[in-house]
Amino acid sequence: MKPVTIYSTPTCVYCNMAKNFFKANNVSYTEFDVANDMDKRKEMIDKTGQMGVPVIDIGGEVVVGFDEPKLRTALALA
After folding, report:
1. How far apart are alpha carbons 62 and 49 in whole angstroms?
2. How many independent structural domains does the chain possess?
3. Exposed / middle / buried, residue 47 (Cβ in 10 Å: 0-12, 13-18, 19+)
4. Which residues of the chain are under the pLDDT cut of 70?
5. Which domain holds residue 68?
């Protein structure tokens, strides 16, 4: 499976939806809390130009926001 990274904040509803989606589909992921980790926040912005969360990197393919169809496609889930 492709490596999955999610840049999120603790209070983000869409971040929690994405993490719940990953858990329900047995997708392992690495999470970075960009509310508290300034280096990862800068990395996220440099990578995508986005300041909103979630930003999800799936093997180099970036999905901004919780977009289940895009996530399913990127993860090759049925």
Report:
1. 11
2. 1
3. middle
4. 78
5. 4-75
Question: pLDDT (tens digit, 9 = 90+) per residue, 48-65?
Answer: 998 999 999 999 999 999
Q: Distance between CA 75 and CA 3 in Å, rounded?
A: 10
> Would you call 63 exposed, middle or buried from its count of C-beta atoms within 10 A (0-12, 13-18, 19+)?
buried
CA atoms within 13 A on the CB side of 4: 21
Nearest to 4 by CA among 42, 25, 41: 25
CB-count burial class (<10 Å; 0-12, 13-18, 19+) for 65 = middle
Specify the CATH number for the domain of residue 53.
3.40.30.10
